[in-house]
Design goal:
Blueprint: H1 2-18, E1 21-24, E2 31-34, E3 39-47, E4 53-56, E5 64-66, E6 70-73, E7 82-91, E8 95-104, E9 114-122
Parallel strand pairs: 1-3, 2-9
Antiparallel strand pairs: 3-7, 4-8, 5-7, 6-7, 8-9
Length: 123
């Protein structure tokens, strides 16, 4: 009985993990509504080996908790292959904020190649 219950919890856990909102580069300019306690990811694609990196502008820490950024390569053995930079977030309090990320070369931060923005509304 315990193993069946554990399996059900694991299956249930997978279903919860699969339902996390993922905001991508295709969602720039959009507004997303969520509730306090909801989690989501900002996932932006870039080409590896170009010198460009996505930098996230400071977030409103009263409204959002940002966890550590991680990077996933589509094909780690191929130079220049697409890479996803992912920031997990949790909604902490009701309010409205804007997420902004810039695709920059660290030595040329004032000349971004791309700019991403999305509005987050927390109820």
């Amino acid at each position: 009985m315990w193993r069946i219950t554990l399996a059900a919890l694991l299956i249930g856990g997978c279903a919860i993990a699969a339902s996390i909102l993922r905001i991508t580069e295709n969602d720039g300019g959009k507004t997303f509504e969520m509730k306090v306690g909801d989690t989501f990811e900002l996932s932006l694609k870039m080409a590896s080996g170009t010198g460009y990196i996505w930098e996230l502008s400071p977030v409103d820490t009263h409204l959002l908790q940002a966890d550590e950024r991680r990077t996933l390569a589509d094909n780690p053995s191929m130079p220049g292959a697409p890479v996803r930079v992912i920031w997990p977030f949790k909604a902490l309090a009701a309010g409205r904020t804007t997420l902004t990320a810039l695709l920059v070369r660290p030595w040329m931060r004032d000349q971004p190649a791309e700019k991403f923005q999305a509005t987050i509304v927390i109820r």
